[in-house]
C-alpha cells in the first residue's frame, strides 16, 4: 500500500462537508498547518472538529472558523479565539466542552477499539447530565463513549513512507492518540524518509494507524502567547 501523497491538497481531497475530524496539537504547538490550510482552500462546510482547543483568530482552526466552515467544536479549552466566542454567543457554533483528561481518554479508547470507558472526571457536575453513572469500589464514575471520527489529521516531526511517526518534544501532545483514533489518518511531517530509516525504538505511532503521509512545507510554528522577562530584571 502506497501511503505517500503529493501534498496537503491531495491528502484532504476526499474530506466532505459534514465530516467529523480530529486535529492534533495543543494551542498552536504541533498542529497540522498544511492540512488546515488545504481544508480552508477546499471550502468544506459543517465540520465537527475534535481538538484540544480552537486555535487563535488568524491561525490553526481559527482559519476554519473565520470562513464559517465549522458547525461544532468538541474541545477542552477555547479561550484564545475571539471569533469562536462571537459565533458561540450568536448561536452560529455548537460547542461541547469536556475535561481535558476525558478528551484524551476518549481518543485513546477509540484508538484501542474500546466503545466506552468509565471516568471520575465530571461526576456531580453538568458534564454528567444525561450520562450513565456507576459505582465501583465506593466511587462513582461516568460512562464516556469513544469518539467516532471520520478522519484524523496530525503533524509529526519525522515519518517514513510506511507511515511510522516520530514527534518532537511537546508537539507530541494529542497527536499520537488522535492518529490512532481516526478511521482514516492523515499525517503531515517535517521530514519524510524511506522505510527502514527510523529507529524502531523511537517510533511513537506505528505506520499501521496511518493511511496517508506527506512532507509538509513552510511551517510557521507560531507561539500562542510569548512571555519574556523585562530587560534588567533577570535573576542572576
Automatic annotation (TrEMBL):
Keywords attached to this entry: Transferase
Domain of life of the native organism: Bacteria
SMART domains xrefs: CoA_trans (SM00882)
GO molecular function: transferase activity
NCBIfam families: pcaI_scoA_fam
Name by which UniProt lists this protein: CoA transferase subunit A
Amino acid at each position: 500500500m502506497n501511503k505517500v501523497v503529493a501534498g496537503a491538497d491531495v491528502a484532504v481531497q476526499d474530506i466532505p462537508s459534514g465530516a467529523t475530524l480530529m486535529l492534533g496539537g495543543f494551542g498552536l504547538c504541533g498542529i497540522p498547518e498544511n492540512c488546515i490550510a488545504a481544508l480552508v482552500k477546499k471550502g468544506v462546510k459543517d465540520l465537527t472538529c475534535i481538538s484540544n482547543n480552537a486555535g487563535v483568530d488568524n491561525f490553526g482552526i481559527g482559519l476554519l472558523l473565520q470562513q464559517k466552515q465549522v458547525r461544532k467544536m468538541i474541545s477542552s479549552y477555547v479561550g484564545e479565539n475571539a471569533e469562536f466566542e462571537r459565533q458561540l454567543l450568536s448561536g452560529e457554533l455548537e460547542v461541547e466542552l469536556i475535561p481535558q483528561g476525558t478528551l484524551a481518554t476518549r481518543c485513546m479508547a477509540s484508538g484501542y477499539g474500546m466503545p466506552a470507558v468509565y471516568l471520575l472526571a465530571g461526576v456531580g457536575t453538568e458534564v454528567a447530565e444525561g450520562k450513565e453513572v456507576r459505582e465501583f469500589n465506593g466511587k462513582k464514575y461516568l460512562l464516556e463513549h469513544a469518539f467516532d471520527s471520520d478522519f484524523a489529521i496530525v503533524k509529526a516531526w519525522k515519518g517514513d513512507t510506511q507511515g511510522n511517526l516520530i514527534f518532537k518534544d511537546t508537539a507530541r501532545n494529542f497527536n499520537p492518540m488522535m492518529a490512532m483514533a481516526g478511521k482514516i489518518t492523515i499525517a503531515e511531517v517535517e521530514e519524510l524518509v524511506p522505510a527502514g530509516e527510523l529507529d524502531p525504538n523511537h517510533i511513537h505511532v506505528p505506520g499501521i494507524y496511518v493511511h496517508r503521509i506527506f512532507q509538509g512545507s513552510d511551517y510557521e510554528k507560531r507561539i500562542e502567547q510569548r512571555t519574556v522577562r523585562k530587560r534588567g530584571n533577570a535573576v542572576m
